[in-house]
Amino acid sequence: MILLSVVGARPNFMKLAPLARALAGRPAVEHVIVHTGQHYDAEMSDTFFAELGIPRPQFNLEVGSGSHAAQTAAIMQRFEPVCLGAKPGVVLVYGDVNSTVAAALVAAKLGIRVAHVEAGLRSRDWTMPEEINRVVTDRLADLLFTPSRDAVLNLRAEGVPDDRIHFVGNIMIDSLVTSLAAARELGAPRRHGVEGSRYVLVTLHRPGNVDAPDSLRELLDTLAELSFDAPVLFPVHPRTRARIRDLGWTAPAGARLRLLDPLPYLELLSLEVSAGLVVTDSGGLQEETTYLGVPCLTVRPSTERPITCSEGTNRLVPARREAILAAAREAGATAARPAPVLERWDGRAAERIAAVLVDGARYS
Ligand code: UD1
């Protein structure tokens, strides 16, 4: 049986790695990997393949950047002939990026079964491109692999039949579990000169936060202010970097805010594990901080991962100076709680997915 995985953007790679490993152990399966080229900078893509031991993709569609329509259309046009040639039994898509929905559309229209890894998450915020991608992909999918029970309920409420839904757990946590010892060993806090301090780790790249100059300026000013309490490390996504450059913003004298290049997976994880606080708008960091028990402020009005707030360490904050400073100081003053143990966030999600795909197992 040929299984074909399509990935394109940084958060896809951590979800592909464990499944590629699980499938490699099953001789009945030929696993073909297609990279759409949505992310193309070495530090946004190649680094992750090398670090996570992902086999080299057999195809790279090299679509690059563009408007949502242009990027999605380019992926569809270039993926269709690959699909026709490879004749996969199942096309696997990951997460909620443009590559996910584009590949799902192509496969579904060719009558090829679509499997969605990380199905059922809903922010209910239709202004987020990722929400559109999630809903459309789930509608097209024949197999829906969910990370949490709330995702199962979302899918049921939308009328997805139960026999398509498999609650396999969180595959992002598989990568984390595999890499945690090496990340601790790496000692990134020491290398960044923040060891022993309650430093703040920041990632921000959502269009809603960084595309409007006023909002971005307020966020940067807030982080600079926060850095007078504790050092702030901010690995900057290329889109955020470009917006900061447009803004011409520089940190005030004495601020301990450091803008870094995007970091490799292990280095980011190494910083995350020992952080006093994470401030982010990423989906993955909300989940990782919950698993690690590190306090997290998510600068967004909603989250598609509510379990990280109800059971984990995550808290939503508006993108406003007072709100962020107050929440950060409150988090700093609160005693650390033990990390929660979430159902099937145990490092075995990829094995469960492989068992469904290859052995016909069921996980309800
Ligand atoms: C995409 C995903 C988002 C995910 C994020 C993780 C969609 C709709 N969004 O957003 O859900 O959280 O990836 O990183 O798919 N760029 C580079 N080099 C690269 C890639 C991008 O410089 O390797 C720059 C380009 O200027 C590009 C911009 O970043 O226009 C945005 O890239 P794009 O892939 O469109 O979306 P992301 O913001 O990365």
How would you describe the overall organization of this protein?
The protein has 364 residues and is of the alpha/beta class. The protein has two domains: 2-169 and 345-359, Rossmann fold (3-Layer(aba) Sandwich), CATH 3.40.50.2000; 178-333, Rossmann fold (3-Layer(aba) Sandwich). The protein is built from 16 helices and 13 strands. It has helices at 10-24, 46-52, 68-86, 98-109, 129-140, 149-157, 171-186, 188-191, 207-210, 213-226, 238-247, 265-274, 283-292, 307-310, 321-333, 349-359; strands spanning 2-7, 30-35, 59-60, 90-94, 113-117, 143-146, 165-167, 200-203, 232-235, 257-260, 277-280, 296-298, 314-316. The strands form two sheets. A seven-stranded parallel beta sheet has the order 3-2-1-4-5-6-7, with helices on both faces. A six-stranded parallel beta sheet has the order 10-9-8-11-12-13, with helices on both faces. Helix 1 crosses helix 16 (349-359) and helix 10 packs parallel to helix 15 (321-333). The longest helix has 19 residues, at 68-86. It is globular. The two termini are 24 Å apart. Uridine-diphosphate-N-acetylglucosamine (UD1) is lined by residues 9-11, 38-41, 44, 65, 96-98, 129-130, 205, 237-239, 242.
Key attributes of the depicted protein:
364 residues, globular, Rossmann fold, binds uridine-diphosphate-N-acetylglucosamine, 16 helices, alpha/beta
Strand content: 5-15%
How many E-type strands?
Answer: 13
The largest pleated sheet is described as: 7 strands, parallel
CATH topology of the largest domain: Rossmann fold
Number of distinct helices:
16
User: Can you tell me the number of structural domains?
Assistant: 2
Tell me the span between the first and last alpha carbons. 24 Å
Return the structural class.
Answer: alpha/beta
